[in-house]
Amino acid sequence: MRVLIVEDDPDLSRQLGEVLKDMGYAVDVANDGEEGHFLGDTEPYDAVVLDLGLPVIDGVSVLQKWRADGKTFPVLILTARDQWSEKVAGFDAGADDYLTKPFHTEELLARLRALLRRAAGHTTDTIEVGGLMVDNRAARAFVDGMPIKLTSHEFRLLSYLAMHRGRVISRTELVEHIYDQDFDRDSNTIEVFVGRLRRKIGTDRIETVRGLGYRLLDPAAENNKK
Amino acid sequence: MSDPQVVTHHDGSLVRRLVRSAVMWVLPILALTAVALTWFYRSSTYRIFDEPLESAITSLIATSQASPDDKGNWAVDLSSEPIDPRYQRALSGRYWLIGNLDETGEIKVLQASRSMAGETLTLPVTDAATILKSPGDELRSVANGPDRDSNEQLRVIARSVILPGMENTPVVMIAAADVSAANQAIKRFAALASLLLLFLSGGLIFGVLSQVRLGLKPLFDLTNEVANVRQGRSERVDGQYPSEIAPLADELNTLIGHNSDVVERARTHVANLAHALKTPIAVLLNEAETSKSQLSDVVTRQSEEMRRQVDHHLRRARAAARGQVIGVSTPVDEVVMSLVRTLERIYRNKDIDFDVDILDGLRFRGEKRDLEEMIGNLLDNACKWTKSEVSIGTHISTSDDSDFVIFVADNGPGVDPSNYEEALKRGARLDEATPGTGFGLAIVDDLAKAYKGALQLSRAKTGGLKVTLELPRTVND
Q1: Are residues A13 and A108 both part of a single domain?
Q2: Least CB-packed of A52, A79, B358, B451 within 10 Å?
Q3: Could B283 and A12 be called an inter-chain contact, meaning their C-beta atoms sit closer than 8 Å?
Q4: Are A220 and A130 in contact (CB under 8 A)?
């Protein structure tokens, strides 16, 4: 899951970045409205945390531009402005949620998870695929109830596959959604991560569809089909 | 609700003032005119009246001769009598007389016109004395006619003359005529002049009244316009005004603009302060959360205190700027619809049914964001507690036509009536009302009070809480 943070306070954006990375998200940070709009316009984010009082272009305008360009990623507005007129303006511009500063990190994470979940059509934070359980709330995964140790990149890969289980996901899409923009995007590394992940959760859980990409499967169900 | 800021000190009416001052000069001048006209008419009437009498006296002087009789008494003879035939007819109303005057005004007749019918005349005592003192002078006096029964009023011209040979005893020569016709004419003239001038003054006062009304009409128009602004029917003082009060209208518009500028500036400052302080507080709290040490505990505690203070003072500052902008009104349905749209998104997981029934064209007499704050908090509160449905509706206040009532009800658990007071009391003590706790009603209560409105809690038919808010509306007439 890849998240964009648009926030002009460097300390706050650093904190948010750290917390989100800890929770297994790939995070990009923009410090003003112009940069934020550009990133949101060019990169396929899964969610955006947007401040309203931004330098260069204000948050509401950035959001309006994205929506006018057909961007559908969920946007959570994080702002000090707590008047209803501002909330109405934010939602009318196309926001999906609204959180006022100061806030508790837990609250922000919960709302972000809810937005991602809703966007992918799930109702809970945990996704189970045939004995494999991905807990997005705690950023952990279990196989048959046993916790498995994953690096943050491995978890992101697994979480994205789990969110879109049963669907073939191209290597490019994976690259776009699990790396932040500063990462050296050599698509071979995806194969490396998939290889490591298979070793940890079981080879037959990730199917390689030649020329198309990867798919997360329930091996037992697949065997029954055969 | 009554209008509280009405100036009750009236220094009379401007119209009455102007009309009164007009009356104060119109009436005396016209009265004086009546007196002067009558005086002129009277003196010219008497001048014409006197002329034949004077010529009669001149003729008497020219034609009289004095001669002593055998007893040594003097007699006066006339070589020819004045020619007016009325002197010959008895009691005709025109008389002449020559005689000796004594101090009592009695005249001892030496010679008289036939019209005197053998009677004599009596002059007033003071006039008699004057005549005796200054021989040769003509004097105008009055006397009763010779006919005692008819009460005839005579105008008399008397002259004391010394006839040749009668050096020791001057004689008085008198011509008199019935003056009642002339007097009556003068009286008639005076009455007619007074009547006409009375009509004239009435017309003048009416003219002044309509002139003042017409002249002051722009002022009345201005008053109406200002009332419109205050009632929120218009945003500025409109219309064309004469050069004398056009500056006043301009000044009023400047003042109205200044007023909203000041309020807007106060709000902007507050919002900027909020943004400037809340982000650092968020940073401190987040940073302190990541480690557990004495330092982080202190930072957390102090940051929470800062957050509380910021919230408290922001609310105060916002409250101070509230309800002060004049000449604004807000369509209620627009605000409610945009809030419902927003709340549907915020509470989309709850799948709430909104039942909205807002009067068509209803306008709140106040600022949009204040209405948004009130309705937003009420709806948010209802959405938070409701099981499945939230209803919002309006009607015109039954007690005051210039108010409207808006209610928000939910079908949640509701509030026990014994806790109503507690739920609203937080408004009185702002520092207790922390965000995210309670019912958010404190803010609504504060705001409603700023608009002289009222908030009431009751039990909804569906079992939940029903909050009723009475607010001023813009009455379009």
Answers
A1: yes
A2: B358
A3: yes
A4: yes
Which residues of chain A neighbour B282 with C-beta distances below 8 Å? 12, 101-103
This complex has an ipTM of 0.75
3-state secondary structure B338-365: HHHHHHHHHCCCCCCEEEEECCCCCEEC
Distance CA B248, CA B233 (A): 20
Instruction: Establish if B71 touches chain A: CB-CB under 8 angstroms.
Output: no
DSSP annotation of B122 reads B
Distances (CA, A) of A162 to A127, B80, B141: 7, 159, 139
Q: What is the CA radius of gyration of chain B?
A: 51
Torsion region of A121: left, alpha or beta (phi above 0 gives left; psi -120 to 50 gives alpha): left
**Cβ–Cβ < 8 Å for B410, B385:** yes
Set of chain A residues whose Cβ sits within 8 Å of the Cβ of B339:
84, 88
Shortest distance, CA A223 to any CA of chain B (angstroms): 37
- The interaxial angle of helices B332-346 and A84-93, nearest 10 deg, is 70
- Reply yes or no on whether the pLDDT at B438 is more than 60: no
Give CATH for domain B66-178: 3.30.450
Same domain, A167 and A80: no
- Reported pTM: 0.63
Residue B303 in contact with partner chain A when CB distance is under 8 A: yes
Q: Check whether residue A8 and residue A111 sit in a common domain.
A: yes
Distance of alpha carbon B21 from alpha carbon B212, whole angstroms: 12
Q: Which residues of B touch A15 (CB under 8 A)?
A: 283, 286-287, 290
Tens digit of each residue's pLDDT (9 = 90 or more) over B89-146? 888 889 999 988 888 888 888 888 888 888 888 888 888 888 888 878 888 888 888 8
List the beta bridge partners of residue B122: B106
Minimal Cα distance from B346: which residue of A? Answer: A97
User: Which residue, among B277, B279, B305, B444, would best test binding to A if mutated, counting the most A CBs under 10 Å from its CB?
Assistant: B279
Q: Could you give phi then psi for residue B411, rounded to 5 degrees?
A: -110, 35
What confidence tens digit (pLDDT) does each residue in A174-218 have? 888 888 877 776 656 888 888 888 998 888 888 888 888 899 888
Residues of chain B with C-beta less than 8 angstroms from the C-beta of A108: none
CATH class of B330-472: alpha beta
Domain that holds residue A134: 126-225
Q: How far apart are CA B123 and CA B104, in angstroms?
A: 8
pLDDT at B435 over 80: no
Of A55, A89, A120, the domain-final residue: A120
CATH number, residue A14? 3.40.50.2300
Contact B282 A101 (CB under 8 A): yes
Q: Read off the pLDDT band of B379 (50, 70, 90).
A: very high
Q: How many domains does chain A have?
A: 2
